[in-house]
Every structure is written in structure tokens, then in C-alpha cells.
Amino acid sequence: MKEDDPTVLKAEYSPSDGWRLTKIESSPEELTRVDEAEEKFTQQELPACKPILTPGLVITTLISIGIIFVPIGLGSLSASEHVVEIVDRYDDACIPSNGDDEAAKRERLSFIQNAKTNKTCIRNLVVPKKMKHPIHVYYQLDNFYQNHRRYVKSRSDRQYRSPGSEGDTKTCAPESEVDDHRPIVPCGLIAWSLFNDTYGISTKDNPILINKKDIAWPSDKNSKFGSNVYPKNFQKQDPVGGGKLNESLPLSEQEDLLVWMRTAALPNFRKLYGRIETDLEADEKITVVIQNNYNTYSFDSKKQLVLSTTTWIGGKNDFLGKAYISVGGTCLFLAIAFILTYVIKPRPLGDPAYLSWNLNSATR
Amino acid sequence: MSSGKPLLSTSEPSSATSPHHRRHSSLTIGSLGRLCHNTSISSSVTDGSQHSNLSDHNDELEDELEEFDEDISPLGGALRNSVECPAYLRTRKKFKPVDLQLQLPLPERKLLVSWGGVTDPQHVWSMREVSGASSQAVSSGIQDYLNKSQRSERFLQISMQLKENLTHHDNPRLIHINDPKRTNDNFEYSGNEIRTSKYTFLNFLPKNLFIQFHRVAYLYFLAIAALNQLPPLAVFGRTVSLVPLLFVLTVTAVKDGYEDWRRHRSDRNENNREALVLQSGKFHPKRWKKLQSGEVVKICSDETIPCDMVLLNTSDPSGIAYIQTMNLDGESNLKTRYARQETNKLVLDGTIISGVITCEQPNRNIYEFTANLEIKGQRYPLSQSNIILRGCQLKNTEWAIGVVVYAGKDTKAMLNSAMSPAKRSRLETYMNRETFWLSVFLLIMCLVVAIGMGLWLNTHKNQLDTLPYYRKIYFDKKKFGEKYKYYGIPMETFFSFLSSIIVFQIMIPISLYITMELVRLGQSYFMIGDRHMYDSSSDSRFQCRSLNINEDLGQIRYVFSDKTGTLTENKMEFRKASVWGKQYGSTLSVDGTGDTNVGAEAVLEGRRTWKLKSEITPDSELLKLLHNDLSGDERIAAQEFFLTLAACNTVIPIATQSPSSSDTDSTLRASYGIVDYQGESPDEQALVAAASAYGYTLYERTSGHIVVDVNGEKLRLVVLGLHEFDSVRKRMSVVIRFPNDSVKVLVKGADTSMFSILKRDHPDDNHTKHATQSHLNEYSSEGLRTLVVASRDLTGEELVEWQSTYEDASTSLTDRSIKLRQTAALIECDLTLLGATAIEDKLQEGVPEAIESLRQAGIKVWVLTGDKQETAISIGLSCKLLTADMEQIIINGTSESECRKFLCDAKAKYCVKSANSCDQISVWRQNTESDYLEIPLGTKLSSLQQQHAGQEEGASFGPLALIIDGNSLVYILEKDLESELFDLATSCKVVLCCRVAPLQKAGIVDLIKCRSDDMTLAIGDGANDVSMIQMADVGVGICGQEGRQAVMASDFAMGQFRFLKRLLLVHGHWNYQRIGYLVLYNFYRNAVFVLMLFWYILYTAFSTTSALTDWSSVFYSVLYTSLPTIVVGILDKDLSHKTLLKYPKLYSAGYRQESYNMSLFWITMLDMLWQSLVLFYVPLFTYRDSTIDIWSMGSLWTIAVVILVNMHLAMDIQRWVVITHISLWGSISITYSCMVVLDSIPVFPNYGTIYHLAKTPAYWLSILLIVVVGLLPRFIFKVLQQIFWPSDIQIAREAEIMSKRRHFFGSKPDRISS
């Protein structure tokens, strides 16, 4: 077989004939570098990196994973430790009747559904550690499937964006229009079920201001919800699903709505209510005045109020830190195990004597 | 002669039964024939009916087959031979019905046709594709059918194809010469316009869609898309769900449209070419498409022939025209065609010819043509030599005039464009099994979702009206109480099931099929481009004719090889001769340039006028004998011997350097005109060349006479008749009238067929006969091909009798070949033996090495040849197939019982166990495997120990070689001895089958295919290998000298046998590894994605919400992750070709299915499960109780799964080239950019997500965590496997890379391979 035949073959494809080769008649001197590269390509001889799992490579990989992961884990764990969080479940406390029997349930429902009842509820909380501002105020709902398909789909982003698409409510059923076929703005189940509990926080006597500006994503405010789209016919007919909107404010200013409309990924979720721009000292007693308006009683959902500081890692969550540390630790452990293995049972790499047929003929 | 029973029994029934047989067969054949002209659409439908049809006529046809098998064996001949010649003549009539049956086989010739094709690069375009569709349909139908049915039925299929051409004599076609009007009046013969395009502008869309939806995958797509259009199920946006289907359909439609446009264009070009047509007495140019049957057309030199025409006249006074049939059968040599002398004269006289040609209906047989020409009340026969076919070119002839007999789609070229049948790769078949499992998972997942949904609805059924995230009721006054998208719990459950199918649809990786096609296309690009498989001597490249079975090349267990032209070069060289019982030429090879030779050369030089292109050094002794002035039997015999060699053939001499072909001044002109011989058979060329070297130069050949230059003297011999070679008679003869009016029959043929028809009485002759016989044995043991030459004087009466029958036979329209054969029997008897020739069939370059490598690789090489046993054994020895230490088992039975005895004896002797049950077969395979790989038997499982004892005992005999001849195979393949043969053959290291007919070749391949799971490959170059090539899992054609039939039928074609080593060991290995990994990876890739969606759905109250945006879901398998798999599938390689060739045993990974098997699939699925859990739960825990919204979560999952699967791939890539880097990292970047783009469109609810998300460190940390945790188990598993259970491939790979590195660092390798 001639290994260095200077003939250059070029493959061309045509749909009817498939691949065919044409010979490029050229002397070896005429071979430019491009041709050479092409030749290497067609002969599958391109310069290549061929990694093999040498003991060195394996151990290096494992150790470097360990070295990278353990500090990250420690870092995020400590960040998570620094987060101070106050969680207060109030749904059962802020309702007159508690009990599992049917009567209690009916009572609860009539309480929450009656617009006239006084739903104010006062909760006293103690700050466990010093909380530096900004302190985020969240409400947390459990067992509320904001990710249900029927729910997620029931919106019309066109309508929210421009007043011209007001009638674009096809996707919003069953909350698309009022009886006389005037469209509801904002339409859809999500908007209809807007969360409407309110919180007022104070220490001893001084009320603490909850800043409700900029709680929604800037992108939502600026582009997604129109600054000239005003709520119309919203919550005008029974049953009223949730919060009402100020009809003189455009949608882009209704930040509570914007936050609510970013539907949560999981059935237990938090949503930002506002921020407290002052520090809270440790052991400070704070009073929260809750308007317990939102009906979660008809479907066994929990309501919680959360006050939390944040760090670079986000809220309080040990998972990342613990996971990183354990993965890093495992890798380091494995590295050691492999070092031992390579020492105890070394197999010379690429030794043809270990080929199965050679092995067998050796033992014969 | 008890063995002759089948023959006798079938000859007994009166002739009435035979037509019965024929009628039935023609019936079935009819249906098959009709099928041929249908488009592919109906193939599946007709298949069923064909099936039943077949089984109906099963028995009759089987009978016929039996006869056929009986008859091709020399046995039939022997029977006939035992009767004296005259006696035979007398009994001839009695045998007639048998003979009638006999015409059915004639395998080679017919096969040529059934699978013939066109090959010219410029013209193939359309022809191949056009009828590609139809014939592919047929062949795929056949293929399907083959897979289902029993063996004997398979044979039927093939033989049916063979017979297809024989049933068209019913209504002849009448052509009135130069009167197209009358010709076409009664029958609407098709015009010469060809249409190879599939579509017209109007029917393109419906027809193309119709054809496309024949793919089940597309129907699946369509069903899913349709489901998604139902309101309660609209999981995806309705348009989004249509995108993948529309995309695929559009791409295919555009491709089809473009190809069809090309066909339209080339059709137009072809149709608008011009030819000279006789119109009102003069030749005027006319477009090809306007040509009609019956018109008279003039063709000039080098022009292409526009339709099938009967020659009327040529520029040559004797009416010869030379044509090149390259486009038709791939043979580059010139062939002669003759105009009938009668018409030739008429046209010369200037009379306008009028006459009627009666010819057969259009058919596909390019080697036969039967017609009659009737001029002025006289009838003349027309045959194959009088017709020139469309697509051929006129050469060496100034002009030719002919009458159109078949035009347009009736031409043989158009009827004859076939593609090889569509085969399906083994791996793809296995893939279906895994696809089934995936569908089971899919169903389970959908059921879980559906049941979950039902239960959830049931527990919440009282709240559903008010549940803010569900709310099933309208509170509008108008619609009050009406239910919004709620159909009751059972229906909702059902809908939930359907919509989860939509969400999980990509669990069945439809894109895999498209990916695999692309990958195979790329692989074939590299196979074709491989410089090491380019044959520079014949300028033939490697060809991938079928794109479906690349990976099968890596799993071959059996190679069935033809001998002639495949192992050998099929370039014949005249080596030795035995003349009148004396042997010449034995010293030739030893001292070719000795003194005696020079002397002889000098003697010759003076008288020689012709020089050959290829030189042969003649044997001096023989030369002396020839030029000896003494008269004597011996000398006369020698002269006649060479005269026969020069005359008894179909070779065409072409004097290339002589300016004119007038024969008067040749002696004056030059002493060194160069003669080139063109002929269909290389043996004949070699013989003619040899004769020329000894002074008998064939110089001119026309239909009526030949001119032989005998040492400078012109000898004009009138050819009275010629009986061409056929595979039944195995000889050819020519009847010659010498200038002195004596008439001789010159015969040459195979020894078996010749010795029986020699004169018997003379004692002298007996001596010669014995001597010749021993010489023949000697020659064939040296691996030479032998022919016996004999002659006979014809007396006047004999001549008259023969002439009348000959006339009659050659003008007959029906059964001409049989009648001719009978005629031949009249004169082919009572012959005088002249001598024998020995021709060397040279081994191709690198054949022994290639065979050795294949053997080391664990591939069994079987040689199937039509040659004699001795020749086969000698070739086997010379190509190292057989070695001296082998035990040869020779099976040479002449009856069933004898064969059974042979087989049983051999089995008993060599302790071969019967394998009757399935597990025993597998045991056997393991045993034979261990034999190949030389694995010690003790390491096997204990349950096998008994077998091993036998093996070890058997090992003391040394490796076995089985040599079996076609004769025995007749009995063995038909009867229940098959399994015995299989047992014996599989335990032998080498199997040689000699004297096998083409159908037996297929039968042997089928034997292995049926009885084992091993992959078979058949390689051959001739038309007689076509059946074998189509039967085997992989068919390889050699672009040899025997035409293109094998190539047309093959899946891969190449120039030399030795490329097979590279094809299998290197490309086969690569392709298999790549496709195997590709399939597993694709399963994994889609499943991990689907499972991730599934886990999430469990957290959405079973509502089949997908956190991912619709576009991301669609793009995932199309855009985000597809490119790297394709690139890896094409470019990745585990070992360099050097290593693979160095350790052929590495090939065994392929047939042991190491790259793709059930356990790998399940391991991959376990890995997939882990990774999907990691993918889902890491983000879930990270963002537990947080403000994360659904689109952010979806965005994180999208990017995480894309990075994870790409990193998974990256971890498995063995060879990183620039393109791999680009595609892999490019895919990740493309994913990011797509997400940025998608999140920048304000009307999407996910607007702005990625910008917000990318700012948080938790996002990046969780991606990193997912990738590392997801891949860590796989990594550890890989490392552990490589430490404790390194595979051979792994070690070889390390060796390869380490040695390169050592080399690079300049240190010497510290280990030398053992």
C-alpha cells in the first residue's frame, strides 16, 4: 500500500449520486497548506487531543474538585448562617375558629369571605439576632399551585403590555370578560387571585416603614407591563378572587400585581412584600398588624410572614453549602482511595501484555 | 445411478405437466413483474398478496428448483454421457420436456439482467433513481419477505427473479421498418421521451407528503402535533408543536424537490438531444423525444445511441459496428454488433428498405434479444448481436444505420436500472428493542401522571370550583355555572394521559433517526475519502451504495468470498499447455530469458507481423514443434490446437495502429501493427493472445468469417456457426470452413464436459487422453485454470443436417437457446482431443495478508467458487487460507446418503457435537469463539466443561478445514442435512466450497444467516455473486473486470480485495463504535430531559406544566444538543488505524457487541435516572422556600440539562479535534444566546428572566453542582472499570497514546510489547 501517494482526492456530494471523489491533479509542490489541512481532514488525521484517564489525571481531577468545592461550600454555608430569618405562620392564628370539623371549616370560610368582618390580626415577634437592613418582608404560601397548568396559562401578556390589545383575552378564560363582554384588564386567573393580605410593622411605638417600591423586577415594570394600561372591570363581579387594584395607576406601577404575576415555580413559595430600610436589633420585639384578607382556608394552604436579611447566596438555605462540602469531601476521599489503589494494584498503562488474548496465553 | 432419481422422475411425466408448471410460474412471475413497474407506494400492499401467491405455487416451483439443482451438477451430464452419442440423439426427443425445464435456470445470464443497471456518471442520475424507487420497492419487499419466510421460499424468490424474463413471447412486437406510422398504429408503443422525475409542478406537494408520511416516525410526529391541537391538551403552543414536523418535512421536501428538478433538467437535456432520422429519403436531425419505433436512425461515430435499435447497415462493408457498453454494464471493452448481410446490401444498393421486424416484448435482459426480420417474404433471425442499446456509444465505426425497436421507457437501459435492496443494520434492529423499553417507560410515566391527576381531582373535587389555581366554573352571568375546560374526572384523567404523552414525546428519540442518517452520511464521506482504499490502478474509489448499514461493518463474523476476480485478479495469463499428450511451458517460468528462448524469438521474429499489447514469452520447444517442417500427427494437432485457440472464441481484434482495415496490403504495411483484443471473457483474451504469440494471430472477425494470420499468411476461415459458451454445456464450439472446403468443428470447454464427448475407440487417443488428464490434474493443483481443446472433421451429411437444424434453431423466436443447445449436441461429439491449456489466475495484491488479518480478527473466511476442487484448494493454499497443518475434511458425495455418511463420519472423527437446541448453539458459538481467540478452555463456565473436553480432544487434530463441492451441496442444502453441515462448518476454521452455482452461494450465506445471529458479508465481483451479495447482511462488490452487476447489487464497492481488511478492521470498527455510542447517548439525552420534566410534573399537581419555555423544549433536541452528537458520531475515534491494523483481534469488540447491548443500555438508563434526579432536585433544594418563579426555574433547568448532557458527551469523547471543540462549546453558547433572545421578547411571559437570574451566584453554583454531582458516578465507574477491568480497546488506546507521548518526550519506550 502506498502510504505517501501524492494524489489528492476531493469528495463532492451531489444528492443524486451521493459522495464521489474527484482527483485533483496537482504536483506535491503545489499542495498548499489549505490542501494539506483538507487532506488531514479527509483522512481523519487532524491534530487531536486524546485524553486518557491516567492515574495522574484522575487524581488531579478529583483533588481539584475537592479543593474548589470545599471552600465554596464553606463560604455559602457561612453566608447562609449569617442570614437572620423570622418566620411566622399566621393563617390559623388570625382566624376565630380552629378545628377540623365541618362546622369550623364553614365558619372560617364565612369569616374570610365576608367583606365586612374585621380581619385585622396582631402578631408579636421577637428578633433573634441583629438584622441589618435591608430586611425583606415576604409572604409565603404553602400548597398553593401557582405552577398549575390551567393557572400558568391563564394570562395575556399582550393585553398587559399595550392598551390596544385590550380585547386579547382568549387565553384568559374563565376570567376574561365581564357579563357585557367588556374585557377585564388585567385578565386571567393569576391576576384575579391577587394576594391581598397587608402587613404593618412597628416596634414598641414607632411604626417601621415597609418600602414597597421596586419589589418587582425592573424588566417587568419597564417593558412587560404597559405604563399606559389601566385596570378595568377588575374584580367587579362575584366572586372576587383576591386583591383589588387602584384603577388610576397603570399596571406597571402596581408592583404587588407584578410580583404576583411572576408565578412561582413550586407549590411552596415566597413573594416579596416590601423592604424594611432600618436595622432591627436583637431581642427587639416587633408587632405586626396583619389584614388577613386572602382566602387560603378553602384549600388547606398555609400563610406565613417572613422577615429575612439576605446575603450573596440569597435567603437562608444551607443546601448549597452542605452539598458543596460533601461533594468536595467525597472527591478528596475518592482521590485518596484511588492513590491507594494505584499503589496497591498498579496496572502499567498501555501494556500489551494485559490484552485479553495475551493474558490468556500467558496463563495457559 | 440411484441418485439420478429426481431427474428421471421429472422426465417421466408427459409434456403436459410441464406447461402446467410453466403456466403457474408465469402467473406468479406476472404479479412480480407488475410489481416492478409500480411505485414504491404499493410495495407494502402487494407484498402480502405476493406472499400468499407464492405459497400457493410453492410446491410446483420447488419441484422445478430440484430439477435445476440436479441439472447444474455434472451428474446430469454424467447420466447423459453414459449414453453413447447417437443413442443420446435418439433419446433426445424423449428428454425434451426436461430440457424445457432446464432452460429455467441458466443462472448467471438471467441474474445479470435482474440486477443489471446503468453506471455512467452522467447518465446514472436519473435512471438509477427512477427505477430506484420501483425496484427498491420490489427488493425491499423481497427483503422483508426474506426475513419472514422459510429458506426454500427464499430460493423461490431468487429463482423467480431469474425466470421473470422468460415469459414474454405471447404477443410479439411488430416493427415496420421506416414506417413509424404503421408501426405505432395498432399498438401505442411508447415514444422516446423519458421521464425519470417523480413529480410534476402540480402533484409535488401531495405526492411528496404522501411519500414522506410512509415513515412511521413522521406519523408519530403528526399524531403528537394533532393531539396538541385539541383544546384540552394544548400543552405546548399550537404552532410551536408543529415546528419540528414542519421543519423535517420542509427540509426533506426541499431536498426531494431539488433532486427532482435536477432530474427534470437532465431529462430535458436528454430528450432534446438530436439524432439523424430518415425522413422522406434523407437524414434530418430530430430531437430524441420525437423518435418513434420504426424510424430509421443514423448514428455517427462516438455518438450515444438514443434508443434500442436493430442494425441495418454500418460504414463497415461487412456490417460490423463496435459499441462501448460502459453505461449499460460497466465493461469498457468494445463489443461487436453486426448488421445482417441482407439489409446491409439492400441499403448499399440504395433501395429504401421496408420490412417487418417481429420481436419480443420489452424486457430487462440486456444479454438477449430474439427477433425476426422479414424482408421481401424472407425471414432472417435477429439476435443479441444485431441490436444496439440505448446508452451505448458507437466507436471505431464511422456511422451506423438502424431501425428503432424499443424507445423511451421500453428500452433495456431504462428497464434495467436497479438499486441494491434496502438493508437495515443489525444495530438498528436492536435499537428497536430498546425503543420498545423506552415506550414502556413513557407509558408508565404517563400512567403515573394520569392516575395522579385522577386522585388529585378526586380529593379536591369539592374545592375545584373555587380553587384559585384551578377554578372550573365560570361566574359570568351568561355562562354561570358552565364548566370551564372540565370534562369530569375520568375524561380529565384521560386527557392528562394524552397531554403527558405530548410533553414526554421526545422520550422516543425521533431525531435519532435523522441524526443517524446524517452521521452515516458523514462516515461514508470519510470511507470514500480514505486514500488507503483508493485503487489507483483502476482509478476506482470506494463506494458507499447503501447508507444504512455502515455500522454492520464492525460486526462481521463470516466473510463469503468469491474467488475469481475477488481473491484473484481475473487477469489471465497463459502459462502452460499440453498438446497431444505432451506438456510445454513448465520451464518457462524458471528461465524465461534463457538462450533457447532468444533463439526461438529470433525464429519467430522473421515471420511475425503482429505485436501484442501484452507480451507472452512462448515456449521454445513448442515453437520448434510448430515450425518444424516435418509433418506428423503431433504437429498437425499442435497447429489445430492453436487454430482453435485463435478461432474458437468471441474475442474482437482491434488493430489499433493500422490506418485502414483493408486486408490486401497488410503484409506490406508494417511488420508491427498492434493488435488489441477485446472480449467478454478474460480467459479467451489470454488464449487468443497466446495463440498470437505462437504465430496464430486472430486478425479480423466478422459475423461471417474470421481472418487468422498464421505466421504471416492470411487464412480466411468462413464461420458457419457458433455455439456460444453456456453454463450447462460448459463448452463452446465453432464450425469453420477452411479455404480448401473442409469443415471442422473446433471445441473448447471444461474438462468435465469435454472428456465425455471425446472419441472413444482409438487406443492411441487413450494414451493422449490419460496424459492430458494427468496434466490437467497437475495444472489445477497448481491453481491454474484449465480448458480442454478438441476438434472434429465434419462430413458433408453431418454438415447438412446440422446446418438445417442450426438455421431453424437460430431463427426461432421461442426457446432459441434450448434449440441451439440441442443443435450443438449434434456436432459436439466424437471429438479428437488436441490438448489442454492452463491459465494462471493471479492472486490480487495483498490477499494473503488481508485474509490472515481477517482470520486473526476472528472473522471466518469462506471461499465459494465455481472452480474445481483442486483449483480451489490450490488457491486456498496460495492465499494462506489453508495451511499445511490443517486437517482437510473433503466432502464429495454424489447422493444424499453418501453426504450424510461423510458428514457424520467427519463429525464423529473430529468430535463435533450436534447443536440442536438454541442454548447449545450459543454454547457452540462460545466454543468456536474461544477457538478464534485462543482463549484457554478452562476459563469458561463449568457447565461447558463437557464441551471443552471434546474441544481439547479435537484440538489434537489441529485446525479443521472443510472442503465441500457443489454437488454435495445440492443434497445437503435441500435436505435436513443442513444442520449437520452447519455444525461441522462452524467448527472448522476454513470452509471452501467449490463448483457452486450462484444460487448455492446464496444458499450457503443463508445457511449461516438462518442458523446463527452472526453477521455475514459477501464479497464478489461477478454477476454470479449477485445473489450472494444480496443475501448477505453486507454485500461488497469488487469493481473488477466482470462488469458492474456485483457493484450494482452491493452495499459497498471497492477496487481490491485487500481493502476489505481496512474496511472492516478500521472503518467497520470506527463506525460501529461511533453509532453504538451515538444511539446510547441519544437515548440518554432525551430520557434525562423527559425524566426531569416528569419529576417536576409531580410537583405541579400532575398538571403537565413544563417549567421550560415551549421553544426551549422544541430546541432541546433539535438545536441545543444535536450538533455535538453528530460531530462525535462522525469524527470521534477510539484507536488509530495503525493500532487497529496492528491488533486485528480488537475487531472482536464489534461482534461481541461491546459498544451496544442490553446491559449497556440499562447501565445508561440507571445513569440517566441518577442524572435526572440530580438535575431536578439540586435546583429544587437550592430554591426551596424562595421567591423563584417558574421561568427562572425553567431557565436554570434548561441550561443545566444542556450543559450536563454536553459534558457527559465531552467526558466520553476520545479524540478532541477543533471541530469537536467548536460544536460542543458552540452548542452551549448557542443555548445561552437562544435563551437571551427568547427572554428579550416582551410578549413572552418569561421576559427578562435570564438577565435577572445570571446576576445571582446561586444560579451558577447550582449549575456547577448539578454537572459535578451528575457526572461523578459515571466518572468513578469509568475509572474503576479502567483500573480493574480494562478492555482490550482501552489498553490498546493507552499503548497508542503513551508510546506517542514517550516518543514526544524523547525517552525510549520502557516496555516492549510481548
From TrEMBL, chain A:
Region (Disordered): 154-177
Main location: membrane
Localization of this protein: Membrane
Protein name: ALA-interacting subunit
Domain of life: Eukaryota
Family: Belongs to the CDC50/LEM3 family.
Keywords from the named record: Membrane, Transmembrane, Transmembrane helix
Any one GO CC term of the record: endoplasmic reticulum
InterPro entries registered for this protein in UniProt: CDC50/LEM3_fam
Pfam family, any one: CDC50
Record-linked PANTHER family: ALA-INTERACTING SUBUNIT, CELL CYCLE CONTROL PROTEIN 50
Organism: Olea europaea subsp. europaea
TM regions (residue ranges): 52-74, 323-344
From TrEMBL, chain B:
Keyword Metal-binding included in the entry's annotation: yes
Required cofactor(s): Mg(2+)
Keywords on record: ATP-binding, Magnesium, Membrane, Metal-binding, Nucleotide-binding, Translocase, Transmembrane, Transmembrane helix
Residues reported in the UniProt entry to bind Mg(2+): D562, T564, D1021, D1025
Active site: D562 (4-aspartylphosphate intermediate)
Gene Ontology process terms (BP): phospholipid translocation
GO molecular function terms listed in the Swiss-Prot or TrEMBL record: ATP binding; ATP hydrolysis activity; ATPase-coupled intramembrane lipid transporter activity; magnesium ion binding
Keyword Iron included in the entry's annotation: no
Protein name: Phospholipid-transporting ATPase
Domain P-type ATPase N-terminal: start-end pairs: 175-240
Classification lineage: Eukaryota, Viridiplantae, Streptophyta, Embryophyta, Tracheophyta
Annotated positions binding ATP: D562, K563, T564, E684, F725, K748, R785, T865, G866, D867, R995, K1001, N1024, D1025
One GO cellular component term: plasma membrane
Transmembrane segments: 233-254, 436-457, 494-514, 1083-1102, 1114-1135, 1156-1178, 1190-1209, 1216-1238, 1258-1277
